[in-house]
Amino acid sequence: MDSARYDTLRTLMRTHLSEQDFALAEEALAFADERLEGRTRYDGTPLLDHAAAVAAIVLGEIGLGHNSTIAALLHDTVRIAHKELPEAEFLALTDRIGQRFGTAVTGITVGLCNISETKLKTDSKQADNFRDLLVAYSEDPRVILIKLADRLEVMRSLAIFPREKWRKKSWESLNLYAQIAHKLGLYNVKSELEDIALRYLEPQDWAHITEKLRESEEERRAFIARFLVPITERLDRLGIRYHVKSRTKSVFSIWNKMRKQHVPFEGVYDIFAIRIIIDCPPELEKQQCWTAYSVVTDFYTPNPKRMRDWVSIPKSNGYESLHTTVAADGRWVEVQIRTERMDAVAERGIAAHWRYKGVNQGGRTSEEWLGRLRELIEQQPEALARRFDARPASGEVFVFTPTGDLRKLPEGATLLDFAFDIHSGLGSTCVGGRVNNRAASIRDVLRNGDIVEIQTQKNQTPKADWLGFVTTTKARNRIKAFLREEQAKHARMGREELERKIRNWKLDFTIDDAVASLVKHYKLRTGTELYAMIATHKIEMGTIKELLLRILSGAAEEERRAAAAEADQRKAEAAAARAGQTARSSDALVIDDRIGHIEYKLARCCNPIHGDDIFGFVTINSGITIHRTDCPNARRMRENYPYRLIEARWRAETEGAFRTTIRIVATDSTGIGNRITEVISRDLKLNIRSISFASSGGTATGTVSVEVPGKGMVDTLIHAILKIKGVQKAYRING
Q: Which domain holds residue 436?
């Protein structure tokens, strides 16, 4: 044996073992070297290198004592002997080891031998069985800890193994050994096993994340320095003795979060944790940990869903620490607060917990922690293959602004709810935002811990359809209040406009009489509806003037009576037609799908379509034109040329295509034109003859001419257009 080859291990043994135990361990090293002489690993190095490396992990990283160290040095010797020697010779060897190094060492090495010979399949269903197997083979729980050290050394050296072994050993390490290490509080072992396994199972992902960590290292250090300034200043003033560590999240943890949350590297906010380690007497531990927690949360807003108090009630594996996650500069920072004693337990698991209580003071204490360890393994209730992080719904979600302000919203709240929760003005002008640095719409539902940024536009205003997806009372009340204010503003503007026009026209009408007449004519419920239609230009003032003049002259009443008489006449004609009678209206011009014939054509001034009430007008040069009874020119034609008017009606089964024009007012947003044309062409299967829009001040106004089979389809068309997000108004116009 090369005398200097294992000097690092010897240094560790001198540091951690008594002189007598060191001498015994040195003898075990020589015994193993003799038994393993000539045996090499895959890369040609002595097989003893593996045993020595495992012993170093057991002693220096896990913190076990001399029996475990000696067992680690001898475990390959016993394993090979069990495989190659006859039973009698194997028993003789174990007796010799027991006499020289103690029966505890023999028991540990045999237990390790049994586990090594068990063939495991890479199947998650095997995880529960594997746990039971470990317990069955591990009369001494140290077997499990040494086996973890053995697996850690194998993974550290995995590159020397044949490639076909990489995936199986990586799967076992990730799904079995890392989870056992986690249960026992060996977090460093757990993280390293996971990272190495990921490197071999997903090499491209591992390389991507490690490169990203390298690129962002300098920025991370600068951020941590800025983050700590107010905390360290306050702790110093309070006289607390402490030191600070920063720990970057393991590559596997980052990868796992990216996969579960479907985010890129930049979307993982808690890349690192900051650890504040306090040096104080045991009786002051809780007090000073909570004081440090108070200092941190004085400067940064904590996420209450991610608070963990393992100081008041430690974990079953002895782990003690305060964990909180706070928001700072738009990112999450995990802060761990613990004492030196707690940190030793966190680094080395339950072994350090009991050693700290005095493992070297007597065998009883050692037996106590070993018994506790066995209890942990045997009583774990959940399958090791699964991890449960789901929590029952609380009915609330906690979300944050980019500056770290905490907002509590009901479960199901949207980005728009969040905007209104911040400020009514922000909600009223919200057009979208970013959630965890990803683009989001106002309808997107928020989840616990989201960091939300709101985007606004000055010309944005609340819409009635917003009430369909907001959940908070504040948002609903603000939207309704705005809509009421808009209605009141339109009513005020519409009434003022009508009063001004009546004065200018010098009509013998009071405003109230005019409103009453117009409401009756347009079949509205209130004057407020009339004012809104005037303010939004759904009724032109020229049309109102003409109507009021007709009312004053009595013509409107005559027209109303005539129209009523005509309606009664049509009902009678329809009844007569159904009874086989000869209708008096047989002389009426019947309009069907022969619109292209020279006898008659549709008037462009009112653009009648099937289903409209119509009449015919005989022109001098163009034959007969068909007008709607409410055509803007109807009154003039009736007064000046009554002899040219003829009765007309549509044939019931007419299937012609008629052109109608719809005026649309909408928010000037990207794709609004496409959404309108999709509804008309794709959903309603109508032909668009022309479309024209102009944009001004954030509002798009325009017209679309569409071929329809009749008036019924116009109502359907307008209703469909009004349902499009962003459309404010849609109504039929003449021409």
A: 396-471
Residue 455 pairs in a beta bridge with 432
Which whole-number Å values give the CA distances from 670 to 455, 568, 695, in the listed order?
A: 15, 50, 12
Q: What's the rounded Cα separation, in Å, for the pair 109 and 133?
A: 16
- Output DSSP code: residue 446: P
pTM over 0.70: no
Same domain, 327 and 436: no
Contact 194, 174 (CB under 8 A): yes
3-state secondary structure of 484: helix
Specify if 356 maps to a domain: no
Q: Are residues 120 and 265 in the same domain?
A: no
Is 699 strand, coil or helix?
strand
CA-derived radius of gyration, the chain: 43
Q: How far apart, in whole angstroms, are the C-alpha atoms of residue 139 and residue 286?
A: 36
What is the helix (H) or strand (E) element at residue 701, kind and residue range?
A: strand 699-708
Q: How far apart are CA 404 and CA 406, in angstroms?
A: 6
Label each residue of 576-588 as H, E or C: HHHCCCCCHHHHC
Cβ–Cβ < 8 Å for 342, 285? yes
Domain count, the chain: 6
- Residue 715: band (very low, low, confident or very high) from pLDDT cuts 50, 70, 90: confident
Long-range contacts (CB closer than 8 Å, 24 or more residues apart) made by 84-92: none
Looking at the domain assignment, is residue 712 inside a domain?
A: yes
pLDDT in tens, 602-630: 787 777 877 778 888 887 766 788 888 87
The Cα 218–Cα 222 span in angstroms is 6
- Do 439 and 418 touch, CB atoms closer than 8 A? no
Tell me which amino acid residue 514 is.
Answer: A
